[in-house]
Amino acid sequence: MSTHLILSSVIFVSIAFILVGVFLLTKYLGPNNTQDKLKNTVYESGVSNPVGTTNIRFSIKFYLVAIGFLLFDVEIIFMFPWAVNIVDLGYAGLVKMFIFIGLLFAGLIYMYKKKALSWD
């Protein structure tokens, strides 16, 4: 058995024991105020007595808009380094970026045709 394997195993096990110990210490040594009823009540945007239940269903439109935003916002991560290095990349980099933007535009058209962007 390699000494590196033994050393890494000892480090891994010791970190696991330290984490378990810290969690147990915070559970037993930390404050435990279960009698304070005001602290455990619901407070929502200045309203201490909310109306309705918390088990309501959200429309899938919220999730579609969020996923669409993430998909089209991530393109900035790829476009910024391209814009910085446009001179070094030349025409090949320009063609590749147009292909990338074309694919994103095709995705936008797909979302539009599926009516994911229309809000009823």
UniProtKB/TrEMBL annotation:
Catalytic activity: a quinone + NADH + 5 H(+)(in) = a quinol + NAD(+) + 4 H(+)(out)
Membrane topology note: Multi-pass membrane protein
Subcellular location(s) of the protein: Cell membrane; Membrane
Coiled-coil stretches: none
Signal peptide (residue range): none
InterPro entries: NAD(P)H_OxRDtase_bac/plastid (IPR023043), NADH_UbQ/plastoQ_OxRdtase_su3 (IPR000440), NDAH_ubi_oxred_su3_sf (IPR038430)
Family according to the record: Belongs to the complex I subunit 3 family.
Descriptive protein name: NADH-quinone oxidoreductase subunit A
Gene name as annotated: nuoA
